[in-house]
Amino acid sequence: MKASLQSALAAAAVTAMCLGAAACGSGVKGHTYAGPNNMVQIQFQSDGKAFTSMGPMTSACSYTQSGNKVTLICEGDTEELTVASDGALNGPRDGMLTHLTKTK
Length: 104
Fold this sequence. Notes:
Elements: H1 2-24, E1 32-34, E2 40-44, E3 49-54, E4 57-66, E5 69-74, E6 77-83, E7 89-90, E8 99-102
Antiparallel strand pairs: 1-2, 1-8, 2-3, 3-4, 4-5, 5-6, 6-7, 7-8
């Protein structure tokens, strides 16, 4: 009984580490994400900076990432995004950044 409990705890610890590693491996740094028809794009740089493009307009932004949560700050506006299990970025349902897929 004691051995099976230890085995179960060890398996749970390994699973938690794997899930944590998967979340860390899904970083946005160095990648570009785009919405349908490429009308909205975000290019995440390696130095915490990002460039968002909406049609012909481009803005310089900054971002931070903690696990699967990305905080994007552009011209004083903050947008919270989530990295999905398929690698896409999901934002608020009522915003311009609802669902962005990785293009690069």
